[in-house]
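Why should sequence recovery work at all? Because a backbone constrains its sequence more than one might expect. Tight turns favour small or flexible residues, buried strands favour hydrophobic ones, and helices have their own preferences. The token representation captures these environments compactly. In the example below, the structure is given first.
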């Protein structure tokens, strides 16, 4: 007997820095999270992330490299596949919070560790900060 593969929603998230600070949003569970959202049918991850960040933060971004991918148990019996990318804002400007979240925050890298948020988001942030510190150009992915 073959096992049925799981069907999970996919959420595309981005690590965005504004003025060298990490942009995070506070969700309905009072946790901080990366901006982004659900991949829609027929949509590629880069298009999804560009759309979601424009909706949630009123920022235009260029999607950079894939950082991480992981399974997140949001609630008992409900899991989401999270895919994170590094992102580069295309213009200067402060992010604006949408109706989807209760707050937007700009955090120094040393302020991230104690925040209530999934550890894998912290890992993605650390990966993007390390890539930038190493002088790696955030090369956008092209499909």
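From this structural description, the recovered sequence reads:
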């Amino acid at each position: 007997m073959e096992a049925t593969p799981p069907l999970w929603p996919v959420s595309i998230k981005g690590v965005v820095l504004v003025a060298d600070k990490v942009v995070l949003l506070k969700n309905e569970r009072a946790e901080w999270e990366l901006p982004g959202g659900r991949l829609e049918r027929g949509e590629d991850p880069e298009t999804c992330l560009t759309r979601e960040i424009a909706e949630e933060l009123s920022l235009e971004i260029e999607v950079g490299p894939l950082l991480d991918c992981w399974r997140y148990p949001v609630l008992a019996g409900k899991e989401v596949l999270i895919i994170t990318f590094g992102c580069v804002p295309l213009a200067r400007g402060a992010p604006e919070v949408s109706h989807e979240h209760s707050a937007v925050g700009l955090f120094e890298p040393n302020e991230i560790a104690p925040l209530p948020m999934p550890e894998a988001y912290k890992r993605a942030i650390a990966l993007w900060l390390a890539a930038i510190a190493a002088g790696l150009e955030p090369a956008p992915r092209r499909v």
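A few observations help interpret the result. The two ends are 37 Å apart (CA to CA).
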